[in-house]
Design goal:
Blueprint lengths: L21 H23 L7 H23 L1 H4 L5 H11 L10 H5 L7 H18 L4 H26 L16 E3 L9 E3 L1 H18 L10 H17 L7 E4 L16 H6 L4 E3 H19 L11
Helix pairs in contact: 1-2, 1-7, 2-6, 7-8, 7-9, 8-9, 9-11
């Protein structure tokens, strides 16, 4: 895979930089696509497109903040290890940049360019945008409906960055040979075995969601926030299903995970990867379930499957 785009002229300038990150480029392209779609949709709905820049900016800010916070929660047990006393377990990682020797570090990971958990960014992005709209007394359900196609296209393009850069969002090893959906890292990743290409699967599904909302659902005159509720349910269900193919730690294991005892570099070992299996709902799956239930609640409470008249 291509983690960075090499810039040969940099070596002549004595600049020690690997080049622009492909993940960052595709993430930026995702936001640019959203910035093109959102103001047009706001204008089409008779809303104020002038707010689109702030909505996108706060969405980006929320994405960066929330995704890092959720990542820290995901690796919590690898940062705050069991040691005697409060000072050892909690204060040491807070006062040492690199944390415990040989363990994940709090500050180093919090401010690094990697380690982004989508649902943290998704929830914080919506929070920041909602607070902004509430402050300016905007019609929150209408604006959120207008933002749904932008969220779908932005996520679809951004997920391609995970695949192109080979950042590790891989799934379980598989013997199936499905073009594109099963991916062999060919030495680009320590696993070295064919695995489920979960970033591309999510991207394809999100492109399908964009097509559904952009070219059909938005023209059906559903009640306010129907598109928002539908997106919560659809995206939550898609992520819930993909997580069954993706290697993630279970928050509350239902079964015992594979043993790491006497397996050198177990997290990077092909044999370990081949044996790995789903053993309980991950953090993303629990959030997915909560998002699905929230969308279903709004859909049923306000009967959002009903349509308003074209005049309304």
């Amino acid at each position: 895979m291509i983690d960075r785009i090499p810039l040969p002229f940099l070596k002549y300038l004595n600049i020690d930089w690997g080049g622009p990150s492909t993940f960052s480029i595709l993430m930026m392209l995702g936001f640019l696509a959203a910035s093109y779609v959102l103001p047009k949709e706001l204008e089409r709905r008779g809303l104020k497109p002038d707010h689109s820049d702030w909505i996108l900016l706060l969405g980006i800010l929320g994405t960066l903040v929330g995704s890092k916070i959720f990542f820290i929660f995901e690796i919590w047990d690898q940062i705050f290890v069991e040691t005697p006393g409060f000072d050892g377990k909690y204060l040491y990682p807070l006062t040492h940049w690199h944390g415990f020797p040989g363990r994940m570090a709090l500050w180093n990971n919090l401010f690094s360019g990697s380690g982004l958990v989508f649902y943290g960014g998704f929830l914080f992005g919506i929070l920041f945008i909602t607070l902004y709209m509430k402050y300016f007394e905007l019609d929150i359900p209408s604006y959120l409906d207008a933002a749904v196609p932008s969220m779908a296209i932005g996520y679809a393009i951004g997920r391609l960055g995970c695949w192109v850069s080979g950042d590790g969002c891989y799934g379980f090893a598989t013997d199936l040979n499905i073009p594109l959906l099963v991916f062999d890292y060919h030495g680009a990743h320590p696993s070295g075995v064919p695995v489920w290409n979960t970033p591309l699967i999510e991207s394809i599904v999100s492109f399908a969601f964009f097509a559904y909302f952009q070219f059909w659902a938005r023209n059906q005159h559903f009640k306010k926030f129907s598109l928002g509720a539908q997106y919560l349910i659809l995206h939550g269900f898609a992520r819930l299903m993909v997580e069954f193919l993706r290697i993630n730690k279970a928050v509350f294991p239902f079964f015992d995970p594979p043993s790491l005892v006497n397996i050198p570099n177990a997290e990077q070992n092909p044999d370990f990867l081949s044996q790995y299996y789903w053993h309980g709902f991950s953090q993303s799956q629990w959030v997915s379930i909560a998002i699905i239930l929230a969308g279903a609640y709004f859909l049923v409470k306000w009967k959002l499957w009903e349509k308003e008249s074209a005049a309304a």
